[in-house]
Records
---
Amino acid sequence: MDRRNLVIHLVSGLIGGVSFIVFLFVLKLSPILSIIVAILAYVAIDLIFSQRKKQQIEVTLKKVQNEEVDKVIREATKKIDTIGSYITKIKKVEIKDKVSEICLVGRNVIKEIQRDPKDVRVAKQFLSYYLDATVYIVEKYAELAAVGLSSGDINKRLSKVEGMLDTIKNTFIKQHERLLDNDLMDLDVEMDLLEKTIKIEGL
C-alpha cells in the first residue's frame, strides 16, 4: 500500500471513529447503530478520496496523451514542411504541382488529427512510415534533378519517382478519407446510442 492510500485509510478511519463517538455518546444512539454509522462514514470518505484520486489520475493521463499527440503533430508538420521546401528546387512545373498537392493533403490530415486527437491511432502508419519515405523520395528527386545530368540511370530514376508521386498523393488522400470515415463511424455510434436511449425512455 502506498503512502497516499495509507493516509486515505487513516483519515477515513479517524472520521469513522469520531462518528461512532458522536452518535454513541452525544446523540445517545445504540452501540449497533453507532457502529453502522461509523462504518458508513468510513466507506463514504474512503470512496470520496478514491474517486478524487481516480479523477486526478485520469487528468494526468489525458495531459500526457495530449502532450504526445502535440509532439506527433509537430513532428509530422515539420516533415511536411521539409517536403514543401524542395518545391523551389524542382524545375518541372507538373512535378512542383504534384509535390504541392501532396503537402496540401498532408496538412489536411494533420488538421483532421488536431480536430480529433483520437485519429492519431488511425493515422499512425501515415505519420511515421509514409511521411518519412516521402521526405526521402522527394529529397533525392530534387537532388538528382538539380544535378542537370542526362544519363540513362538518372533519367530512369527521375521518371520512376515522378510516377510514384501520384501513388503517394493517392495514399495521402486515402488516409484523409479514412480519418473522415472514422468520424462518420463515431457519428453513427452516437446517433444509434441516442436513438436507443430515446426508445428506452419512451420519448
---
Amino acid sequence: MTLHIDPSPAPRAERALVGLRRPAAAAELEWPRRVGILNDYVRVPYANGSSFASQFLYRELSVRGHEVTIIGPHDPDATEAELPRRHVVLPSFPLRNHPGVHVPMPSRASFARVAAAQLDVVLAQCTTSMLDLGLWLRLRHRVPFVCVNTLHLPSVYNVLLPDSLNENRAVNSFFSGAMMPWVERQMAANYNRSDGLVVLSEKLERYWRERGVTVPIHVIPRSVEPKVFDAPIGADPFPAEARRGARLLVVCRHSREKGIARLLEIFARWIAPEVPEATLTLVGDGPDHDAFRARAAELGIADRAFFVGEKRLLELPTWYRHADLFVYTSLSETYGQVVSEAAWCGLPIVALEDGMGVSQQVRDGETGVLVRPGPDTASSDWKFGTAAVALLRNGHRRRALAHRAQEHARLRADPRRCVQRYYDAFTDAKRHCEESTRTPASRLLPAGLVGRWVGLHSLLLGLGTLREPAVLNRHGARPPTWEELLREDDPVLANAH
C-alpha cells in the first residue's frame, strides 16, 4: 500500500466544523500545514492509550485545517475504512505473541513515499526504531522532529517473557540491571537527535533529564475527548450482583505489568472481608486475562470479581459513571489515560503512587488517595485496602473527592490546552531544527541507521517468539477508526449507547 490521499472535498458537516475550530487567522495555518505522525498502528486493533492519543491529535489537527498523515507498519488485516485518509505504510512482520501488532522495517520505497508527503513537522508517537525515520527526515530534508515518550521501558520485558523466564531471578536481573538501562541510554540518544521530547507528566521530565536528555522537553498531558466522555450516560452495565455503593472498577489491559494480580490479592484479603457487598469489576482483555481469572478463583473471589472483557471506547463513560470507586495498581504508566477518564467522569481514585503519570493525576487527599507501593508491600497492600474500605463506607467523602477529581481532570485534560501545547512544541522544534542543522556536517546521517533499525526489530521479533500468542479483545470490541469521531454529527456517537 502506498501513500493514499483522498482529493475529494470534505463533506459539508466536516467543512462547517473546520470553520468553527480552525485558528482565527488563516495565516496561522501556513506552518505547519502538513503534519506527520509516526504511530505503532495504522489500524488500531484494540484499546491502546498511545494510539488513542494519536487519533485524538489526528482529529483535532484535521478539523483545524491541517493535513495529517499517519505513518506506521503495514497491517494486512486492515480495511480501507479502518485507515486514516492520509497514510504511509512500511513493510512489516507480525509480532507473534501479540496478534494485531506489526513490527515495521525500513525500505527505500517507503522512505521515498514519506518524503513525497512534504511534511512540515513530524511527531513520533511510538517507541520503536521507527524513530530513525523521523531522524532521516530531519537530517535529509530538515523536517522538525518531535518525539513522545509513550512507553515505560523497564516494564517492556515483562510482556515478552514466558512465565518460566519471567519468574527466573537471573533472567530478571539481566533485563532489569543490564538490558533495560542499555535500552534507556539508546532511547535518550535517539531523543537527543530530535528537536524536542514530549512527556506526559512532570516527573517524567526529571526522569529523562537524569538519563541524559538535553533537547527541549515539553510536558503535555493527554486529553480526554468531551464528545465521548460527556455523552449521555447509558443504562447500568454492571452485573446484577454488583450492588450500588460498593462497586470497585478497574479498566486496563490485562497484562502482568498492570498489577492486576496484586489488586486481586488486595481485594481478597483487605476489602472483601470488610465490606461483604463489595465487588471488583475488571474491564479489559490481554495476554494474562485467563491467568487473572484463575487467580481470582484461587483467592475465593470468583463470585465477586467480574471479568467483563474489553469494551468499546464509546461504552466506557457509562461504566465509569455507574461505578463507585476506581482502583489502580499499575506501576508502569507514562500517563495512565484510564485514570484521567475516570476522574473526568467524576469517579474518585485509589491508586499506587508510581512517581510518573498516575501520581501527577491524583492529588492525595484531594481527588483521591495515593498509596506508596513499598518497600514493605504487605503494609502497602493493607493501606490500599484500608483506603478503599474507608471510601466505600463514607459516601459523603467519596462524593467530595469525586467532585474535585472531575474539576482537576477537566482543567488538566482540556483538549484546547492540549492542542495548544503541541503547537508550542512544534514551533520550538522548528526553531531548534533551523539552529542545529545549519551546516552540511550537522545534517550527516548516522552510519548504520538502517542496519541498526533492522537489527533491533529483528531482536524484538525474536523475543516475540518466546511466549505463546495472546488472546486479545476476544469480545470484538472494535476501537474507533481514525475518521469516526471527526465530525460532531457522527452517527457512531448517536448510536453509542
